[in-house]
Amino acid sequence: MNKEALIAKTKGDRINAAMGKGQKLVWFRDNMDTDEIQYDKQVENEVKKIWTKNELVLLLDLYLDRHKEQLEELQAKKDLGRLLSPKEALFLENVKTERKEAEMAGLEVPDLTSTAMVKYLRIWDGDLNSVTDIKLVKIKPTSVLQNETKPKENDQNNDISKITGMVVE
After folding, report:
1. Percentages helix, strand, coil for the chain, rounded to the nearest 5?
2. Which residues contact 98 (CB under 8 A, 6 or more apart)?
């Protein structure tokens, strides 16, 4: 591969990564004031200036479910025995990968717990060159957080077994 081709490939990869992140940030900018979330504290007719971590998790859940209708349509097609087009199969795979990434490591979302970031995101024009100016935090969806907080009985029993040398059943 010659030098020009390598430079073009690297530039294309960088642009694609910025576009993906930019689309996510635009979604959060456009949906951060949605009525679908029950906010912890909200004064009526006042623009929200800061989000709690719980509210940010609920917003991430909405983000992950944004393609719900399309997924249901594709599932109905599959249930009827029809083959999906390559474009539909790729879309399905991307959604599954995104959800799996969110559940395993969390997804990077704009830091709406900072008033400065909320203000910046509201005035941001979607310019990909300024994507790096937006501070991101990793958040996991509600379903994963609920599973992490539940104590696992087997783990507790294993700990007791290790300490006492007795088997707990």
Report:
1. 65, 5, 30
2. 64, 107
